[in-house]
From TrEMBL, chain B:
Entry keyword set: Amino-acid transport, Cell membrane, Membrane, Transmembrane, Transmembrane helix, Transport
Chain segments annotated as transmembrane: 43-63, 70-87, 93-119, 131-154, 177-204, 233-254, 312-329
GO terms (BP aspect): amino acid transport
Organism: Halorussus caseinilyticus
Keyword Transmembrane helix applies: yes
Superkingdom of origin: Archaea
Pfam families in the record: BPD_transp_2
Family annotation (InterPro entries): ABC_transp_permease, BCAA_transport_permease
Protein name: Branched-chain amino acid ABC transporter permease
Membrane topology classification: Multi-pass membrane protein
Family from the record: Belongs to the binding-protein-dependent transport system permease family. LivHM subfamily.
Protein's cellular compartments: Cell membrane
Coarse class of the protein's main subcellular location: membrane
Length: 388, 343
């Protein structure tokens, strides 16, 4: 709604250029959840889980395989919400197995052994013909005809389907609100992400979470105080894997297909790392903002088709004379724009990332918190109440 | 167990025993051994620079794969420029070594700039930040190369095919070594790899600067107290490591299994990590031994994939399994010590 208000305002053309569209926002939500789960283990305990994509991939493949009847006992029509929870549990079991050997190591070695495990899985899935006829490209949902839906299973009115083609749309909700399929997907996926966020938030602020921070700050002292840090780390790893798998399941449920490159590959973990650093390492909500920032930059700089983005904006608003001006050695402005903007957002994301590492080590949310002197919500509430 | 499944098992087992017999025949063992050495040469070259940088500076350089990839493109370009028309195999080989030297120099320059401009600011932060920073550098370098490749239309146009065509013809042919015949390229890779290892070894143990580097990695504070600018030594080592990565890239350019492409960055980075960790982070001797182990495992599993086991990812999976098993059994690696690096 805010989106449409801004787009219809006098600076509409500029707003279309800057704002991401709803479909991008869905990506922001589920990948943001994955980035949060990465931050949950890496940002709070200080153990860099460089193979976190293994759990995201487990969740994504679990949903697709179950929908194709490839997982024993589970039928193709199992409600999506159950699939998400089961995928989460499967990933948690996997995390306990991986963690049991990995947490004997720390620092660079921990990062490398988790990377090793996830690459073994990635390489294995890439050639395992059980998952689909062409495992290198990844499987798609073929058997299941009904759409994936989020809500209370069995109660149709509380159950809304998600997906680009098969999703539900709503006409005249509360008399005046209408949502298309993408908007319904956006709100329903958002709901799951929100629930997961609150759950993780609750855990972080419990005594269990305090021990995790103690481990990050000084593991020897935490141990000396009497905590068995191994079990705390293992528990946190399993919880984190659970939510990573839920994020992967949402991704698979929305896209209805997965590939090894977009799920198990180590650069997927790299993206979560990117989001966490930009958003704020060790702030649970930060990675979501970090990924929003990243996607916004990517979309702003690289979208060549219709809709927003800097490239079409420049093409439309720069005159023909400007576009054909020669810059250097036969390179015109138009060509330069094409060369440096069309599909090369990674470059600018990389530059921003490096600048963040060098100059804003606390990330977006961390820095805002430092300025305000505490979590944003609490500070804003305090200011509003006037008790400064 | 039903009779049918028992029979299937017996047949599978018989096939396996048969394949094992094949594998153990001298000519097969010998060719797997030579293949393994050639692969070891490649692994030691892509991991050598990484271990140098970690050994002295304690920086795990994520941009190492990107530097190898840039080396592959630069080496290819230089050879295309230098060779041009048709020339004899001797001239081509000479051009290769000139391109190798030029790539080394250019990449060393790039490494120096990265160290002075970026990494130097992070020495007093936790080591994780150096991983993060070099990860960001990788993103930037890969995308810059992608822009350049697209802009100059290097791939997949026929221009770039010229770079692959610069390989002297005798490297594509097989050499008869009595019992087995080996591809000329494998022998060439073994020679270049061995020469690089020998060169680095001599530099580190026989020259004065190598002595300073080793002193700096043992005890940076004491070295500083002796009046040596350790910061400058860091820059030199980082440049050296990047240069070696470039040399590795140039070698990969000619190998049909690797070639020059942007994903080469990730494809070389991970094996390099595996080799460096198996050998023990920062020990040059360990890296050489680990490269031989990984190369032999690669060659062996490739043989099994070609002849018996129908699973294309078998060699790659074995490499990562070795990494995981090594980290479980002996986290510090073959020749590693618990505490390494530091500044």
């Amino acid at each position: 709604m805010l989106h449409s208000a801004l787009v219809n305002s006098p600076v509409g053309a500029e707003m279309v250029t800057v704002l991401p569209d709803v479909e991008t926002m869905i990506t922001v939500l589920y990948f943001g959840l994955f980035a949060m789960s990465f931050d949950f283990i890496s940002g709070y305990t200080g153990y860099l889980s460089f193979g976190h994509a293994a759990f995201y991939g487990t969740g994504a493949y679990f949903v697709v395989l179950a929908s194709n009847g490839k997982i024993p006992v589970l039928g193709t029509g199992t409600p999506f919400v159950y699939l998400l929870i089961l995928a989460g549990l499967a990933a948690a079991v996997l995390a306990v197995l991986i963690g049991a050997v990995s947490f004997r190591l720390s620092g660079v070695y921990f990062a490398m052994i988790t990377l090793g495990f996830s690459q073994v899985l990635y390489v294995f899935v890439r050639d395992w013909d059980y998952v689909g006829s062409n495992p290198r490209d990844g499987p798609a949902v073929l058997e299941r005809t009904e759409p994936f839906s989020v809500g209370v299973p069995g109660v149709d009115s509380l159950d809304l389907a998600i997906g680009q083609l098969a999703g539900d749309s709503i006409e005249g909700f509360l008399g005046f609100l209408s949502f298309g399929t993408t908007e319904v997907s956006y709100y329903m996926i958002g709901l799951v992400v929100l629930v997961c966020y609150f759950a993780m938030q609750r855990i972080i602020h419990s005594p269990f979470g305090k021990v995790l921070v103690a481990i990050r700050e000084n593991e020897e002292r935490a141990e000396a105080v009497g905590y068995n840090t191994f079990w705390y780390k293992l528990g946190a790893f399993a919880i984190s894997a659970f939510f990573a798998a839920v994020a992967g399941g949402l991704f698979a449920g929305f896209q209805r297909s997965v590939s090894p490159e977009s799920s198990f590959y180590f650069l997927v973990t790299g993206d979560a790392l990117l989001a966490s650093i930009i958003g704020g390492f060790g702030t649970l909500a930060g990675p979501l903002y970090g990924w929003l920032f990243d996607e916004t930059v990517t979309e702003f700089l690289s979208k060549a088709g219709e809709g927003g983005g800097l490239l079409p904006y420049l093409r439309d608003h720069l005159g023909e004379a400007t576009m054909t001006t020669e810059l250097y050695n036969g390179l015109t402005v138009g060509q330069a724009i094409d060369t440096f903007l069309n599909g090369h957002a990674e470059l600018y994301v990389g530059v921003i990332f490096v600048l963040f590492v060098l100059f804003v080590p606390n990330g977006l949310l961390g820095t805002v918190r430092d300025r305000l002197g505490g979590p944003v919500g609490k500070q804003v509430a305090a200011r509003l109440r006037g008790d400064e | 167990m039903t009779l049918a499944s028992t029979l299937v098992n017996v047949v599978v087992l018989a096939g396996f025993v048969d394949a094992l017999g094949q594998f153990l025949r001298p000519e097969n063992l010998a060719s797997v051994f030579v293949d393994g050495l050639a692969k070891a040469a490649i692994y030691v070259m892509i991991a050598g620079g990484l271990t140098l940088i970690f050994g002295l500076m304690g920086v795990l350089n994520f941009a190492h794969g990107s530097m190898t990839m840039i080396g592959a493109y630069l080496g290819g370009l230089l050879m295309v420029f230098a060779i041009g028309g048709s020339t004899g195999p001797g001239v081509r080989l000479l051009t290769f070594f000139l391109a190798l030297a030029a790539t080394f120099a250019l990449l060393a320059g790039l490494g120096g700039v990265v160290e002075v401009g970026l990494i130097r600011r992070l020495y007093d932060r936790p080591p994780v930040y150096q991983i993060l920073l070099t990860f960001g550098v990788t993103l930037i370098l890969d995308e810059l190369v992608r822009i350049a490749v697209l802009f100059y239309g290097m791939q997949p146009t026929s221009d770039w095919q010229a770079a692959l065509g610069t390989k002297p013809s005798f490297l594509a042919e097989s050499v008869d070594l009595g019992l087995i015949s080996v591809s000329g390229l494998s022998l060439f890779e073994i020679v270049v790899g061995a020469a690089t290892v020998a060169g680095l070894w001599a530099f580190l143990t026989r020259t004065r600067y190598g002595l300073i580097i080793r002193a700096g990695s043992e005890d940076a504070e004491m070295t500083e107290a002796l009046g040596i600018d350790v910061r400058r030594v860091f820059t030199v080592v980082f440049a050296l490591g990047a240069g070696v990565a470039g040399v590795a890239g140039t070698l990969l350019m000619w190998d049909p299994a690797w070639g020059a492409s942007v994903p080469l960055a990730a494809d070389t980075l991970l094996p390099a990590f595996v080799v460096v960790i198996i050998g023990g982070l920062g020990t040059f001797r360990g890296t050489v031994v680990a490269a031989v182990i990984v190369g032999m495992a690669d060659a062996t599993t490739t043989w099994w994939f070609v002849n018996e086991i129908d699973f294309a990812s078998l060699p790659e999976m074995t490499i990562f399994l070795i990494l995981v098993v090594m980290l479980i059994l002996r986290p510090q690696g073959l020749f590693g010590v618990e505490e390494v690096g530091g500044h």
